[in-house]
Amino acid sequence: MMNETSLVDLFRTYTIKQLISLIDQSQLSERDLFDCCEHRFETFNPYLKAFKCVFTKYEATHIRDGSFPLANQPLRSIPFGIKDVFNTCLKPTEMGSIIWEGFEAGNNARCVDSLLRSGAIPFGKTVTAEFAVHALNETLNPYDPARTPGTSSSGSAVAVAAGIVPFSIGTQTAASIIRPASFCGVWGMKPSFGLIPRTGSLKTTDTLDTIGFFSYFGSDLRRILSSMRVKGPNYPYVYRYVDKAGPYPKPHGSLWKVGFFKSCFWEIAQPAIKRAIEKVVAQLQAIPNIEIEVVPDFCGTNIHELHELIYAKCLSYYFTQESLSEDRVSSLMLEAIKRGSEISVNDFQAALDSQSTYVEKCHDTFDDIDVIISLSTSTVAPIRNQTESPDPSLIWTFLGMPSLNVPIGFSDEGLPISLQLSARKYNDYLLLQFLDHALSLEIFRNQSIELPTIGIPVSLT
Amino acid sequence: MKYCKRCCIPASQEDVSFDELGICTACRTSEQKMHISWKSKSQELGQILSKTKADAASYDCILPISGGKDSFFQAHVLTKVYGLRPLAVTFSHNWFSETGFYNLQLCLKSFSLDHIQFTPSRDLVNRLARQSLFEIGDACWHCHAGVGAFPLKIAVAFGIKLLIWGESICESSGRTTYNDSRESFDKDYFTRVSAKKTPQQMADSGCASLDELSMFTVPSSLEIDNSGVWGLHLGDYIFWDEERQTEFIKSEYGWRETDMESAYKGFKSAECIMAGVHDYMCYQKRGFSRASLQAAVDVRNGLMTRKEGLDLASRIDAEIPYALEYYKQLTGLTDEEFHEEIKRHRSPFVDPGVIRPVSKTRTTSESSQPFVEQILDRYKNSSDSRLQSADLDRLNSELWWS
């Protein structure tokens, strides 16, 4: 049996694969895992406010078993957190808005159901920014409560950082997975657009909303992705480019071509972040089968401008009704809706056409590149409510390309620093293969960044 | 042609409307689903079904069933979740595929269903399938009319008051939305929306007598009122997610998909060999077909971009299905006659220049011949296997020496 110390911090000690193996060997039980969640929730959540609500063990098991788990359960008994923009058959789905307080959808979003069928156990619903946009919520950054945890999937990132759950799910329309993952020092993945169905989740922007997830260990990302994504001939693009063909797996010992894309935000990035990324690039360059190529800036701030236009227009379209309750909607949201309403249909359409052109063009831009290294965020977590720098990761959301947040170290202030790895659309498994390669070479650590005592009362660490 | 700015639905879709941003009805409906309390809806359903169960005599309800993904899932919900005893009623189009036949039998067995089926004669089906092209520009009048009328006739005849269909009419038809008020039960829905012509009108065309079409005739309003028969769609009470439901019935019960013509998903209308012909006619009339509808759903669900959806659909929608040969054979129409007639039904929204059918090159594992015809062909001219010499020796030896 496990000793008491490890039982209270299971998810920052063992990977998902190890946890399942320990259950198989009867050294752990599903009950132990859920108890660990509850213990850490009771310890940390009053302070960090990562979860909006949690399920009882009975409710969680009932939801999971009601979804008829498959015989092969790659996430058997593994608890997870659900951003409160996904419908769940029990507990409210409030989408971070008081307008929808107490709203009980009564169905599971399809990706939630896929996880349940993989044997995972829902632990609770995590705090989101209002309608998954950007208004800062009550969740605190575990490294420094004075700083933002990053929005909008704040609760999901913090829940993993604090070891309350081993993984959690979120959404990204701009940078809502990569940014909080970076600010909280955990692994995050935004898969290619088209891999995970959005059925039963909040819509903000059709061409941008992408479902993704956070995990404490990098090696767990593949298992989570495989449990959530669609497969088979009913999804012809995924079947052709992900299931059946593509450059994955690259034969052992082949050359990896790694692009280093600084983007126009490199200039404003904090020196500590630039140094940390350049150090990783230098380490990679020293490896015989890795070739680094600097990718020229192909978009400037143009993608950000187009993104802003599409995003604002869609918010004004999808949240017309909510905007009528002015006193119950944040000023940030109202401003975005107002901006969107002033955008003409023609300008909106032109921006969508430009997005489509960019998506096509980037196939050429990254034609012979396997993996791209870029900034996750240009700063460490800023002080709450301070204006944040533009999100470099928004570029990959716009282009529908998969991206990972890779925690790589600390700044002088003791705040997490990350870099971002991306790949061409549908090359998600190639990206994860590169990650495995880099982990095996110890360029990256499998674990997320260990939570120090900084900013958290000693009693809670 | 004008398309929805969000998905792949064109203006030639029947009853579609676009809002100020150019978004179609089905897209708007798909977002409404997110803000409906399905918890309250399912509680409402629970109350209806409890009362039905308490009031019912022999069977609790009629389950119109084809063995397709929706009716299979309905059977699961009604029997396993709500503990009802439905009477399964099938109007057979007599075009069952082998996969469809298997799925129907599997459904009856999995849920221990009593079953009534009506199968119109091959000759009548052939005559109606031919006239259907001329009347409504579609091969399937008999199916549209039969699935609407036959379960209602059984309900009235046996005094079973409730019929339970599957998908809500709001779901992807684009004809109405969850926010629109509408009649909860409309006995003439199938006639109005899909069959379009009454049995009397078909009889007037001379292809069949009214007597032959009695099973295609919806009971009168008086009969419906007197019997107290009414119906509901499960999709108005539970969050309808056809892909999730299909995954579920496949893994839990062994329901099977197949190669569908004019489509890229293997589950829609898997029971019918003529679905591709139906959809190809839609392409000829409206410039889009099943693949466009499927791509539209995938785009809404974030599973492909609109451009990917339009590219994929434009290739598949234009394919001439293998089953068209069977259709021409059963109707006696030449290729030229068929295409001349279908052009007459073309939507004014469609530029004829964009209709460019292509020969199909994709292979299919499903025969384009109805499964029962395959069985008839297989056995009709084959000799009695017992009379083959090796078997005769075996039979003799087993009969006399065991």
Shape of chain A: globular
Approximate strand percentage of chain B: 5-15%
How many strand units of chain B? 7
Q: Element order, helices and strands of chain B?
A: HHEHEHEHHEHHHEHHHHEHHEHH
**Average residue-wise pLDDT of chain B:** 93
Number of strands of chain A: 11
Which H/E pattern describes the elements of chain A? HHHEHEHEHEHEEHHEHEHHHHEHEEH
Side by side, the strands of the main sheet of chain B go 1-2-3
Q: What class, by secondary structure content of chain A?
A: alpha/beta
Compute the separation of the termini of chain B in Å: 75 Å
Number of helical runs of chain A?
Answer: 16
Biggest interface, residues from each chain = A-B, 44 and 41 residues
Average pLDDT of chain A, to the nearest integer? 94
Briefly note the structural class of the backbone of chain B.
mainly alpha
Give the arrangement of secondary structure elements.
The complex is a heterodimer of chains A (461) and B (402).
Chain A: H1 4-7, H2 16-24, H3 30-48, E1 51-54, H4 57-66, E2 79-83, H5 110-117, E3 121-126, H6 154-161, E4 167-172, H7 178-184, E5 187-190, E6 210-215, H8 221-228, H9 236-244, E7 256-261, H10 271-285, E8 290-295, H11 302-318, H12 320-323, H13 331-341, H14 345-365, E9 371-375, H15 394-399, E10 403-410, E11 416-422, H16 428-440
Parallel strand pairs in A: 2-3, 2-4, 7-8, 7-9
Antiparallel strand pairs in A: 1-3, 4-6, 5-6, 5-10, 9-11, 10-11
Helix pairs in contact in A: 11-13, 11-14
Chain B: H1 25-32, H2 38-55, E1 61-64, H3 69-81, E2 86-91, H4 98-110, E3 114-118, H5 122-136, H6 141-158, E4 162-165, H7 189-195, H8 199-204, H9 221-227, E5 230-233, H10 242-253, H11 275-286, H12 290-300, H13 306-317, E6 319-320, H14 323-331, H15 335-343, E7 358-359, H16 371-380, H17 389-401
Parallel strand pairs in B: 1-2, 2-3, 4-5, 6-7
